[in-house]
């Protein structure tokens, strides 16, 4: 097993920049080369992991708050709702869209009460045909709070990649249990199906030219709405309004 460790000499008062640079060179030459590391246990693993305390112990409501903040920083629109309010929130997110396409596995409860014409994708629509669709409604596999990233798997809920990239408006439904804090936990969830086609979305599509003029909708949807389904709030105990009870406690 290699004894390699990434340790640099500390700067000390009175040391010139030249001496510090030469000391770092000598320290680098004294350790084995990095390409001599050939076994898994030799690789330094000081990076953040999926089971870090921050990921495990952070209150889930706070994690969802971070996700909402990051998404709004990307100019995405977030609709926070409960399971019962999800159909109405989805309808509000779709706005005035007249034609909507959904992957085949999207729950019927999300679409049954929608006014727009809803098409369940069967893989036959070409990119030109998808471009005539006003909006796409998909589910989600994972949402990473710290980066504001929505992860879609190419399945019956996330849809094929073209469906989520060609229409100009994307509405994605995220459930509370799909939200994680950091990238390592998100990658761990994706690792359960390493052969899947994954799409990672951090805000609406946008790019800038050499003059920093922002152009939206170049590489994907111009608009992104996220419907976040959260647990219903716990009911608060009703206060006793019986005057006789108040007299007894007075």
Keywords:
6-stranded parallel beta sheet; 12 strands; globular
Which shape, going by the Cα principal axes? Answer: globular
Provide the residue-averaged pLDDT.
87
CATH class of the domain at 59-229: Alpha Beta
Instruction: Work out the helicity level.
Output: 25-40%
The count of β-strands is 12
Spans of at least 5 consecutive residues with low confidence: none
C-alpha termini separation? 76 Å
The number of helical runs is 8
Question: How would you sum up this structure, described in words?
Answer:
With 250 residues, the chain is of the alpha/beta class. The protein has a domain at 59-229: NagB/RpiA/CoA transferase-like (Rossmann fold, 3-Layer(aba) Sandwich). The chain contains eight helices and twelve strands. The protein has helices spanning 17-29, 53-57, 60-73, 86-94, 127-131, 161-165, 183-190, 243-249, and strands at 77-81, 99-102, 117-120, 135-138, 142-144, 149-153, 169-175, 179-180, 198-201, 206-208, 214-216, 223-229. The strands form three sheets. It has a six-stranded parallel sheet with strand order 1-12-7-4-2-3, with helices on both faces. Strands 8-5-6-9 form a four-stranded mixed sheet, with helices on both faces. Strands 10-11 form a two-stranded antiparallel sheet. The chain is globular. The model has no long low-confidence stretch (mean pLDDT 87).
How does the SSE layout of this entry go?
Blueprint: H1 17-29, H2 53-57, H3 60-73, E1 77-81, H4 86-94, E2 99-102, E3 117-120, H5 127-131, E4 135-138, E5 142-144, E6 149-153, H6 161-165, E7 169-175, E8 179-180, H7 183-190, E9 198-201, E10 206-208, E11 214-216, E12 223-229, H8 243-249
Parallel strand pairs: 1-12, 2-3, 2-4, 4-7, 5-8, 7-12
Antiparallel strand pairs: 5-6, 6-9, 10-11
